[in-house]
Amino acid sequence: MAEEISSVVKHFAAEGEFIYGEAYGCGHINDTYAVYFKREDRSPVRYILQRINTAIFDAEELMKNIKLVTDFLKKKIENEGGDPERNTLSIIPTKEGALYYRDKEGNCFRMYLFIEDTITYQSAANVTVSKNAGRAFGHFQKQLSDFDAKKLKETIKNFHDTGVRFKALQNAVNKDACGRVKLAKEEIKFAFDREGYCNKVTSLLGTDKIPYRVTHNDTKLNNILMDPKTGEGVCIIDLDTVMPGSLLYDFGDSNRFGSNNATEDETDLSKVTFNLDMFKAYTEGFMEEAKDTLTDTETELLAFSCILMTFEVGIRFLADYLEGDVYFKTTHETHNLERARNQFKLIEDMESKLDEMNEIIKKIRG
Ligand code: ADP
Ligand code: GN1
Ligand code: MG
Q1: How far is the CA of 218 from the centre of ligand 2 (A)?
Q2: Ligand nearest to the CA of 257
Q3: Is pTM beyond 0.85 here?
Q4: What fold, for 127-365?
Q5: Which of 97, 194, 227, 260 sees the fewest Cβ atoms within 10 Å?
Q6: Tens digit of pLDDT for each residue in 286-296?
């Protein structure tokens, strides 16, 4: 890979001379590297280099979307008195001025400025981080509220259509491509018992009750770079799925990940519980930014959206396990099954806490 990195980076308009690259971060989709460059009379600099997952994304469409979104955000950030090179991603073009580089084998790479002095969290950290994460994603949503959604391509079709995800699980069970159904009987039953969750949001999406908004759609806590000293959100990253969706997807997905007392990969299920303090803090932060735009139906469904998004990701992990681990990056054979179990344990805990979650929302909404 070292050789490949050095032959790829030379196509980008990066500053200085390439020294070395190393695998970086915990994303499940793209291959991410930190690449280091030395500069004359100045300290070395690093960039993020990513091999775009072209099994999932059309690189051309994807990068056009990201360019549109980041250009738009940079103007907003400037008007807010922020730092446009720190508070959103900056694409480093190729030497020919393209948004990405395609090699002879069809691998597609992109480069971003590395945003230094930040930290990402893999599970609930503390209430300050949760509140700031809520504020950061709420603010991101607000910044994009007047972005013309028609300009954006849908980078992954039916990304948050839980019903479509459920059908994919049914198909995977019926096909049983890897003979793994017998190893996941309990998990399949757990999912099938909850089919009723699937259409609660999609049946109203696009109406006045749950309007389409330009949303991030992948609001994991590790998709925010945070200031390690203050815990403030510095930059929302992973803009691959920014497209029209529901605000409930962003709220629900953040809490699925950031209000879990354990990481997504935890296999000791006794540790996997929903943290109401983190949920409350996230909601407070999010509401500071989003309160005035939320409809009554969206407000009523905020708590449920956490269950829904956990269900959706859980069934995606389970379907991927049954299909032979073709989508999410895994490190061992039962990885996706373990992740599904983790999500399902979290659902059980949230189901038992739903009334309390709704009470918390009511109090914050006032
Ligand atoms: P994936 O789509 O695979 O999740 P991400 O775009 O989220 O990939 O990147 C993976 C990780 O790389 C992030 O969680 C973060 O730690 C790090 N990262 C990505 N972009 C930057 C950046 N511009 N500056 C600093 N770190 C970054
Ligand atoms: C993937 O790219 P990453 O690792 O931030 C996935 C999300 C899932 C998440 C589960 C494009 O997110 O939808 O919720 O894994 N992203 C894509 O951890 O499928
Ligand atoms: Mg990511």
Answers
A1: 6
A2: 2
A3: yes
A4: Aminoglycoside 3'-phosphotransferase; Chain: A, domain 2 (3.90.1200)
A5: 97
A6: 999 998 999 99
